[in-house]
Amino acid sequence: MNKTVLKVPEIIKRLKVFILAGTLLATACSDEAYDRHYQADPALVAENNLWTTIEAMPELSRFAGFLKNHGYDQLLSQTQAYTVFAPNNDALAALDTSNMDVLSELIENHIARFIRPASGSAADPVAMLNGKWIDFVKQGDNYYFGSAPFTVPAKSVMASNGIVHLLDAYESFFPNIWEYLAKGAGLDSIKNYLYAFDEIVFVPERSVPGSIVDGQQTYLDSVFVNSNARLSRLGYINREDSSYIMLVPNNQAWTEAYNRIKDYYVYYNKNAQIADSLQRANTAYALVQDLFFSNTLQTSPQDSLISTSSHTFYKPQYLFDGAEPVTTSNGTAYITDQLKLNAWESWHEPIIVEAERTLGRENTVSTPSVQRVTDLSLGISGGRYLKLEPTTSSGNPTVTFDIPNTLSASYNIYCVFVSEKAINPNAQGLKPCQVYFSLSYMDDAGKIVTDRFPASGKINTKPEQIDTIPVVSGFKFPTTNYGEKDANGESVTYVTLKVVSNVDRKETTEYSRVLLLDCILMEPQKQ
Amino acid sequence: MKQSCLTNTQEHVNGYSFTRQLIYLSLVTRPFIVHRLSFTVIFFLFCFLPLGAQESREADSVTIKKSEPAIPLITVKGYIRDAVTQSPLLGAKVQSKDQLYSAMTDENGFFTIQIPGYLRQLCFSAPDYSEREYPLQSRAEIEAALYRRLPPLRNLSALTADAEIQSLLGGDVRAITHSGAPAIGASLFIRGYNSLNINSQPLIVLDGMIFDNQYSRTSLHDGFILNPLSNISTDDIESIRVLKDGTSLYGAKGGNGVLLINTKRGKDPVTKITLSALTGYNERPETMPLLDAGQFRIYLSDILKDYVNDPAYLSSLPFLNDNPLYYDYLRYHNNNDWSNDVYRNSITQSYNVGVSGGDDVALYHLSLGYTNANSTLKANDFTRFNARFNSDIDLSTRFRISFDLSYSQTDRNLRDDGFTETGDVITAPSVLALIKAPLLIPYEYSTSGRITSDLSDSDFTDISNPVAIIEKGLGESSQNYLTLTIHPSFRFTDALKLSGSFNYSLHSLFEKYFRPDAGVAEIYLSDEGGTSSNYVKGQNAKQISLATNLYLNWEKRFSIHTFDLTGGARFLSDSYKGEYGSGHNTGTDLNHNLSGSLAYRKTTGYDDTWRSLSWYANAGYSLYDKYTLSATVSADASSRFGKDADLPEIGGVRWGIFPSVNADWLLSSENFMKSLPFVDLLKLRLSYGLSGNDNIPATNVLTYFSSIRYINEYTGKTLVNIGNTSLKMETVEKKSLGMDLNLLDNRLSVSADVYHHVTSDLLTLKQFNYVAGKDSYWSNGGKLENKGYEITVNTKPLALRNLQWELGGSLAHYKNRILELPDGDYVTSIYGGEVKTSIGQPAGLFYGYQTEGVFATSRQASDADLKILSYTGIDYIPFAAGDVHFSDLHPDGIINEKDKTVIGDPNPDFTGSFNTRISYKNLSISALFTFSYGNDVYNYVRSQMEAGSGIYNQSSALQNRWMNEGQLTSIPRSAYGDPMGNARFSDRWIEDGSYLRFKSLSLAYEVPLNWMFLSGFTIWASANNLWTYSKYLGADPEFSISNSILYQGIDAGLLSQGRSYFVGLKLNL
Q1: ipTM higher than the 0.90 cut
Q2: Do residues B848 and B986 make contact, with C-beta atoms less than 8 angstroms apart?
Q3: 21-80 in A: which are within 8 Å (CB) of B?
Q4: Kind of pairing, strands B867-869 and B876-878?
Q5: Which of residues 1009-1068 of B touch A (CB under 8 A)?
Q6: Is residue A394 packed enough to be buried (19+ CB in 10 Å), middle (13-18) or exposed (0-12)?
Q7: Residues B167 and B139 in one domain
Q8: Residues B1005-1040: pLDDT tens digits?
Q9: A250 and A322 inside one domain
């Protein structure tokens, strides 16, 4: 018994050792699997961030210097994911940065958000920090960043916050069309025109509202965005996610075109400066409105091109003859020293005034009603026409139409009469109308002038068919009312065309006083 | 298994093998004055006792002891000694098993006893010594040694019975603690899964009465599982036993096995007062390592590449704006560990006073307890007040009545816990702490850059602020449990006794949930077409149970023959009424109330009643006490059975018949065992029986309508259920063979069982034809089996005068297999995964894609040449470097449904526990280990936290995600929206859930005092969950989100169990 007692401490001691050892061993095994899973694998997870990784690579010292000089050591040290396509020292050895915006054209042209491994046969284009999209593809056994090849064998280094791909060359900066306008020689005119619309706009809905002080909303975080009203209307040639063809007039072309177009926009205003201002603004807009062609909208560019102002140019090659194409990051700019846009395909547009529209229409001695036709093949524009019936047995109806947006240019003016026979083939006893027209407009002295067409006599319509009656051919308005609006934003015009039924009491058996009018058509006279 | 030969039990369960009797309290004596005082207190507290019962009756002893007439007696002499010191034991008791014959040892340890010649064993006992059953083997002189008994092994810090069961019945009951929430309970499985689709939890019999643990009821709070068993204080529990065989006695309710829980009763007229107190410190649990703020920002700023193309836009995002002058810079530039805002170290305290005593007429036991346990998850706690009064009154020598009354109230503060399956807005603080951006903090900054107390709203990704939910949200779950039981018994003759039990219990539930506006994004309610700023819901429920059990018992010994016949009837009637209401937009977070002004209100209610009647009979026969044969049959009728069920019809109702037969052979009492004197006990057991599972949803045999509010405007009635009038219970056929073996003066005991269960008529949901207007109905069909074995070994390697060391362990194995399914194999979608139910396979199999790692290089990917069909259904997308290499099991180069296979099995190969105890003088140390081996886990948490497909914060393993050509890793590339399905349900999320857990280490010291008023003083300390060995990558390998079989092994991230430390004391007055 005593012998046993003496052994007890030893037994306990041995057991303790055994238990402890077993516990530690088991704990170690248990924790090892756990830690292996949850802890960073040194083979995968880098300790250094992008900046310290680049800084530690002697072959990237030149690029690192650029980064440091522009504060990108800070950016690349942050806990956000980036991919750096880093040109090595040899690649940058011959780089002349004297005429270069190093930040946007070199640094931001080689850094992208997100981690983009060189993996697989091809990758999507990569959005760089300067907004450029640069192809990142594999050709043969090597990867290319744009046209810059990766160091062979491909060398990519993981950092804690991204990846560095080493390049044997740097990727040239491709300006987009917008940027090119600022860089290209002899493009000041168009550049100045478009850049003048740049503004910074406050966006309240994206801002963070604060308290209201003195009845005014304040904002904790005011969000402003760059905006350009002209580009928002004609096309975002300053963005990288769209692609355009742009016809870019150089200064010579701009001047020539401007002088050619400005006669279409002769305004009268008591204040001559206002008239000149309106002429300049609208002339310039007429000049640029058909220079932008979206690459994505063209179904058959060889046959026709549709500008972003929705004007169609058929067989458009003539527009580009002699122009110098410049490839940009978001399309092609065609630098031309002569704009060959035809007025009637662009700014000098036909004008149609629908008779059935009430606004800008006055009638006398008559009751107007709008008639609808179901057979659209009849060619009645808008499928509706105006029926004007005399209110008295002796009255001759008249109707006057406002004609907006006439340019100071020549038009062939027509009035389209509708035939009841065309609408109802069984109609019997149809009689023609007998009419004349009065055209009022403003002369270059600001005076309203009215001309009668025909100067004497009357015009008889054809009751059996829809009849487009020429009112006057090649009539040139001395002034334009293009784009003029009143204080309420309504179009203002001094140009009116009156249609006057002129059937004598004795002629009522032969002529009808009921007017069926489809529209007034102002067709540009080609010059 | 071994049953104490000296313990009278209240239940009359002859012929059934109890696995183990766990808890015996050795109460000590104390002066008479305390006895009178305490009795007075009891009288005023509970005025239910028949007045004068203890005064007016001059009670005779209720112990029925009678000498057998004219039986020739033989004399047996013997010597009993201390097994360690070899010194003789004075006053050791020598008894026959039925206690009719007894003797005491003298000062030299000798005894002489006259016993009938047919007795085959004697029982020895002595104070502080372990009892022992001794085979006579026709010997006239015997010698036996007794070992000192160690204090009972129990979990001193357990708050509920579930925790006790898990700690101490490791080999008999597979108890899986639901979570680390205090008193949360456990999923309990006895001998595998005996059901597939309905309740598979054991029947609980509390003090002889069936206890409804409301397994089918659900809480309003995600991650919380209602557990009425938590109403019972562990201080009140005398014993917990497992009834595995012979469950036929409980007929259609015993299919999943039976847990018999007995509460403490007065045993001795001497008044005894026990005071106990404990306090505990619970450490914050382990949580999944997450990406820190820097790592998360890198991850976030990378994964957005599939979402945003414009670098300028990205730079403008506030969380990526690194300009310190930016007005909101501080908000987005923190490195916050959200777990600090959600978890805490917490305190547990529990106090209990127990008084027992009485006189010759009445014995009583009274206990009062208070427990408060704060969860390690903030805003979660558990409080219980419990009172129990058990009394036994001998009204005459023949008439005894027991009267039990108990009341308890449990109140919990809760918040949702764990990931939900529904994909609703996440409001569980524990989940939010995982997924929420570490860039943020829960409070607002002032304009001067100081952190204020203003709670932040939901963040830029609409993820809620968990602290707001903790502070402004509300979650309550309160239960009241009142039970009143009367057990009268009348003994007509010595052999014939009529007993009854009448029980009334009331179980009420009140729950409330409030999701605040503060810190939570406004939620669009697609069904209602509106928005929700806050949300309140509540439910009240009340269950009233009436139970009667009346039985007649006749027990008679005729020389070598013993007969034991019992017949009776049990009637249960339950009523469960409840109502539920919810609504949105209370107007303010200060208003948590349901009212008519709420938007998008929903109400529902339940009014379920069910009844069951069981006739049962048991016949036992024993020859020489060596050969025991018993047969039981019960006939059960239940309101849950359909009227057309394929069951015998008697008296207009359908009856399930459940027979069983048990046979025991006590080999150690055979004379031929003389040659093996080291064998103290060897018993073989054989059983066969049927039992059932009638947990059919209460109203599923009925076709009925229920009121609804149509488009939230008009009231009407709609068809809710099309009843299946053929429904009946599942039937479990149980066969088992067991052995109990005690060797070397009981220094080594082994108990082993093998069993085979077959459950037939499985309750299964079947689909209606679409014209029915309802989706599904319950039907019987299918069959499953469980085969297995259980081994329990206890040894005493060291037994010295002052030092004893005991080792024990148990091991259980089951093999579950589905034998038949009415409609063949099927797959159930659970938590984004799939669980396959397949003939010939075990239940709960995980069914998904097999993986072979991650493509490190483009070459590997192109060599594998695998692709998926794009969402357009036309073109295919090839897998690339960084994608997961899924096994193309259906070799067509396309990864799709055809490639799925079984990827995991949540069923363990082995479960169990082992313990060791060392006692040195008054000091004892015990350690308990639990284990599970071979079970797979679907780690749903990791599938969310390592998907790398969204803007949730991720586990720190995402640092190792594939990012560059050639990287060898197991974590694929991250990609917003996971276009290649790299995070699909695959073996990436299936893990080995095996574990070995150092469950508890306890140290108890019995202070040697000899004060007049203090007869015992024990101080103790314990530590739980000290260490866990597991390869599992989740926070805790032990969890159970549901009692449902198909949900086993799915880790949805409930609160994990952390370390806890307790100190306590126990005073015996």
Answers
A1: no
A2: yes
A3: 23, 26-27, 29-30, 33-34, 37-41, 43-45, 75, 78-80
A4: antiparallel
A5: 1027-1031, 1033
A6: exposed
A7: no
A8: 988 877 777 878 889 999 999 989 999 999 899 999
A9: yes
